[in-house]
Write a structure and sequence with these properties.
The structure is a homodimer. By secondary structure, chain A is an alpha+beta fold. Chain A is built from seven helices and six strands. Chain A has two domains: about 190 residues, NADH Oxidase (3-Layer(aba) Sandwich), CATH 3.40.109; about 45 residues, no CATH class. At the A-B interface, helix 1, helix 2, helix 3, strand 1 and helix 4 of A face helix 1, helix 2, helix 3, strand 1 and helix 4 of B.
Chain lengths: ~240, ~240
């Protein structure tokens, strides 16, 4: 990654085009890149600037390889469960060129090759009070910084929840204190393929002004934005189900 | 904000220098800037790309002003409580030029003038399952994108939890369904003062490789980085207190 290419990416452009990267080349991630990514991750805010985060970096030592394998097995189990539950092989999933079947192929490859990611980072949250719905405000902003910083250095990654399924095993293997919360599992590497625009629902579905469900006229996507339907098939976000 | 200045900020530089902004000029925030900020916020990842977020924008209509006042009163109560609890007027807080007393003055002004922020955004999370520790992974990355995007457009803001203290009042006033989670309260505007480097603890305290407490030699801050002690006085992050 040349210095000039690194610095070419503007802040707004970088935010708009940071994709989930699930396929990596064999190229290792350098110590310098890792240090810079984690430095930038930790420029994020946290409640009272407590910085209640730690990062366990898994690369190629013996314990890291064991931890990656635990996570890889969980990735495969979670993806198999999701593939069936979200009916990835039905409907548009049967057309090879549909976004659904492209995502399914990407997930197949990702789960099958999880252990080959050059780096896996486990962001950890250190609780300082009883669990609170705002705890995430002190750990996930730094995870997003981490992904953006990776993109700025020509790398890429994806936020996953695979650690949640092997929490106890990882704690035992890596000597993590019981009270620590494993908040995410983020594989990182040099992308096969590239970053680019992501797809979301139209902005008008998300933005209200002055009260719930009051859509302002200005809440429009930039010209040329391509949308997606959100979430798994059959998914409806629950608003007061009664 | 000139187009050229906007596009001058690189991704890595932007992440490194996005500060909490708590003082705003009177300049209003344009519809265009708001649309762009919220568009970029929603480029963040969320679990299964569900995009379980909504944003209530408070500006100058009647109900928004009432909501801002509820939040401003809570801001003042929370800051008074914190000022005492965290002993802001003791120790280095008695020296006018200490970081502690500078922060206290900034918070005094922020709380006293909360309602004058040109825009307050309430990011909301729509639950689709029982509350889960990873829920925050689907709302706080987009809050961080929001703050970075604001910075990229010459604006600024700060993540606060003031909404948590007036949750029910805000829901009644703004017609927000009961099941919706108000995840944050983010005032935005044109900064008085400027963005710049933030202070954190040394990177070596945060980063482990291959196991808990194993600090790698490469986990070093860039030359010239200035540090801070984390969190409120007397604060210790709890690791297995026994």
């Amino acid at each position: 990654m040349s210095e000039s290419k690194t610095h070419m990416i503007g802040l707004l452009e970088g935010i708009a085009s940071t994709r989930a990267i699930r396929r990596f080349t064999d190229e290792p991630v350098s110590d310098e890149d890792l240090a810079q990514i984690l430095f930038l991750a930790t420029r994020a805010p946290s409640g009272s600037n407590r910085q209640p985060w730690r990062f366990i970096v898994l690369r190629d030592d013996e314990r890291s390889l064991q931890a990656k394998q635990l996570l890889g097995e969980m990735a495969r189990r979670m993806w198999e469960f999701k593939r069936r539950g979200d009916r990835y092989d039905e409907g548009s999933g049967q057309r090879k060129d549909s976004p659904k079947s492209r995502l399914a192929r990407s997930m197949d490859h990702f789960a099958a090759h999880f252990e080959e990611a050059p780096v896996v980072i486990l962001p950890c949250f250190l609780p300082y009070r009883e669990s609170n719905p705002m705890d995430g405000a002190s750990i996930y902003p730094c995870c997003q910084n981490l992904l953006l910083a990776a993109r700025g250095l020509g790398l890429g990654g994806v936020m996953t929840g695979f650690q949640a399924g092997v929490d106890q095993e990882l704690k035992a293997l890596l000597g993590i204190p019981e009270s620590v919360v494993l908040s995410a599992c983020i594989p990182l590497g040099h992308p096969q393929g590239s970053h680019g625009p992501v797809r979301r629902r139209p902005l008008s579905e998300f933005v209200f002004e002055g009260g719930w469900d009051q859509t302002p006229t200005w809440a429009v996507d930039p010209t040329g934005t391509r949308h997606t339907r959100a979430g798994p098939p059959g998914h409806r976000t629950v608003i007061d189900p009664k």
